[in-house]
Amino acid sequence: RHLDWPDLASLAAPRALLVQQCTQDRLFPPAGMRAAVERIGAVYAKAGVKGRFTGRFYDVPHRFTHAMQDEAFAWLDRQLGQARR
């Protein structure tokens, strides 16, 4: 009643967060997806860790494409590499 998905995702701050959205997803309206990414980004900016949030949009239906997987694995590699330092 008091929180929505973007609010829950924002609880990850200051830890790194990658959110990938599919603009042709019929489950969620595009305006809502954009608003969610903006909301999460605003929380990260307010926390002083704007660079730790990445919100990306792909012009595909609801799926996890090879391009999305490549981005996610590269993002994970960067985050895990930073954690080891």
Furnish the topology, listing elements before pairings:
Blueprint lengths: L4 H6 L6 E6 L7 H17 L6 E6 L7 H19 L1
Parallel strand pairs: 1-2
Describe the structure concisely:
This protein has 85 residues and is an alpha+beta fold. The chain has helices at residues 5-10, 30-46, 66-84, and strands at residues 17-22, 53-58.
Structural overview:
The protein has helices at residues 5-10, 30-46, 66-84, and strands spanning 17-22, 53-58. It is of the alpha+beta class and 85 residues long. The protein has a two-stranded parallel ribbon with strand order 1-2. Helix 2 (30-46) links the parallel strand 1 (17-22) and strand 2.
Helix content: 40-55%
Q: Enumerate the strands of the largest sheet in spatial order, edge to edge or round the barrel.
A: 1-2
Order of helices and strands: HEHEH
Radius of gyration: 14 Å
Arithmetic mean pLDDT: 94
Helix and strand composition category: alpha+beta
Stretches where pLDDT is under 50 for at least 5 consecutive residues are none
Beta-strand share of residues:
5-15%
Give the termini distance in whole angstroms: 40 Å
Q: How many H/I helical runs?
A: 3
Q: How would a textbook summarize the main sheet?
A: 2 strands, parallel
Silhouette: flat
Instruction: Give a count of the beta strands, DSSP E runs of length 2 or more.
Output: 2
